[in-house]
Design goal:
mainly alpha, 2 domains, two-stranded antiparallel sheet, 2 strands, 1% strand
C-alpha cells in the first residue's frame, strides 16, 4: 500500500499549504488533549448538559446556567473540535486527494477527519451517558491515536514516497516494537489511575474506577520505569549501529524523564490541576516522540540507500 501513485503536475497552492496544514493538525491534536484534560480536571464534563446542543434548545452557552464556568470550559473544548474538523478537511483536500502521492500517504490524509468525527460521537456518548469511565477513557486514547497518526503523516509528507529502506537491524526494530507496546500500556494505566482519583471527570462522583488509586499509580510508575529501560537500550543500539539517527531516541528519554518528574511531583503535592493537565499534554508529546523515533528506523527519502551505504547498519541480534 505504499507504492507511489501516478505522478502529476505539482499544484502551487498544494505545495505551499500541505506541510503547514499537517503541522497545524499535529499541534491542534495535542492542544485539544490539553483542553479536554481541563474539562475533566475541573469537573466540567457535564457543563453542557446535552449533545450536540450545549443546553436544551441552545447550541451555545446559556447566560444564566447553574455552572457558567464549567459550561464555558466544555463549550470551548467543543469549539476546538470544530477547528480540528476544519483542519482535518484541509488535510484531506491537500493530502488525501493528492494523486501524486502514494496510496498509503493518501490514506493517512483521511485519518484525521475520520477519527475526529469518531471522537465527536464518542464525546457525545460520554455526555449523554453521564460520563461512563470506559467511554471517557476511550475518548482520551483515541486522542492519543490521532497524535500518533498526525506525527506519522508529517513524517510521510517530509520524506516522500521512495522505496522503504531499513536503517536499523531487526533486533532494534523489535525493541522499538516493545517500546511502542509499553507506551500503550503506560497510557492505559494513566487513564485508569486518573479515573481512580479525585480528577475523574465531574464533581458529583469522587472516582470513576473503583480501584486503589495509589496501587494504580505504582503500577503506572513501574511500567514507566520499564519503558525507560527499553528506551535506554534503544538509544545504545542506534548509537552503536550508526544507521538510524539517535537524536529522537534521546528526545524520547528526555520527554519520559520530564513526565516522570511531573508525575512524582503531582502525587507529592496533592494532584494540583495544573500539573495533572501538564502531565496529560506530556503524554501526548511522549506518544509523538515515540512515533517520530520509530520513523527514524526506516526511510523513504530518495537518498536513503546512499545514507545507509555511508553508515552501515549493525547486524547484531
Amino acid at each position: 500500500m505504499s507504492t507511489a501513485a501516478p505522478s502529476g503536475p505539482a499544484t502551487p497552492w498544494r505545495e505551499r499549504w500541505t506541510r503547514p496544514a499537517v503541522v497545524t493538525n499535529l499541534v491542534a491534536q495535542i492542544a485539544i488533549i490539553g483542553t479536554g484534560g481541563l474539562v475533566r480536571l475541573t469537573g466540567s464534563g457535564l457543563g453542557c448538559s446535552t449533545w450536540p446542543q450545549c443546553q436544551p434548545g441552545s447550541f451555545v452557552p446559556v447566560r444564566h446556567a447553574a455552572s457558567p464556568l464549567h459550561q464555558g470550559i466544555e463549550f470551548g473544548n467543543r469549539t476546538l473540535t470544530g477547528v480540528l474538523i476544519a483542519v482535518a478537511v484541509a488535510v484531506l483536500v491537500l493530502v488525501g486527494f493528492d494523486r501524486r502521492r502514494s496510496l498509503g500517504t493518501r490514506a493517512l490524509g483521511w485519518v484525521p477527519l475520520v477519527l475526529v468525527l469518531v471522537q465527536a460521537v464518542v464525546g457525545g456518548l460520554s455526555v449523554i451517558g453521564g460520563l461512563p469511565p470506559a467511554v471517557v477513557g476511550l475518548h482520551f486514547l483515541l486522542s492519543m491515536l490521532l497524535v500518533v497518526a498526525a506525527t506519522w503523516l508529517l513524517v510521510r509528507i517530509d520524506e516522500g514516497d521512495g522505496p522503504m529502506v531499513w536503517l536499523a537491524d531487526r533486533a532494534t526494530v523489535r525493541w522499538a516494537g516493545v517500546q511502542g507496546a509499553l507506551t500503550f500500556v503506560v497510557l492505559v494505566l494513566g487513564v485508569v489511575t486518573t479515573g481512580a482519583g479525585p480528577h475523574s471527570g465531574d464533581d458529583a462522583v469522587g472516582y470513576r474506577f473503583a480501584v486503589d488509586p495509589l496501587l494504580m499509580a505504582r503500577a503506572h510508575a513501574g511500567v514507566v520505569w520499564l519503558f525507560v529501560a527499553v528506551s535506554v537500550v534503544l538509544l545504545l543500539r542506534v548509537r552503536r549501529a550508526g544507521g538510524a539517527p539517535s537524536r529522537w531516541a534521546v528526545t524520547v528519554l528526555v520527554v519520559a524523564a520530564a513526565q516522570g518528574g511531573i508525575g512524582y511531583v503531582q502525587v507529592a503535592t496533592g494532584l494540583p490541576i495544573a500539573l495533572v493537565n501538564l502531565h496529560m499534554i506530556g503524554a501526548a508529546l511522549l506518544a509523538a516522540a515515540v512515533t517520530r523515533f520509530a520513523s527514524t528506523l526506516r526511510s523513504r527519502r530518495a537518498d536513503a540507500e546512499q545514507a545507509l551505504a555511508e553508515a552501515p547498519v549493525a547486524t547484531a541480534s
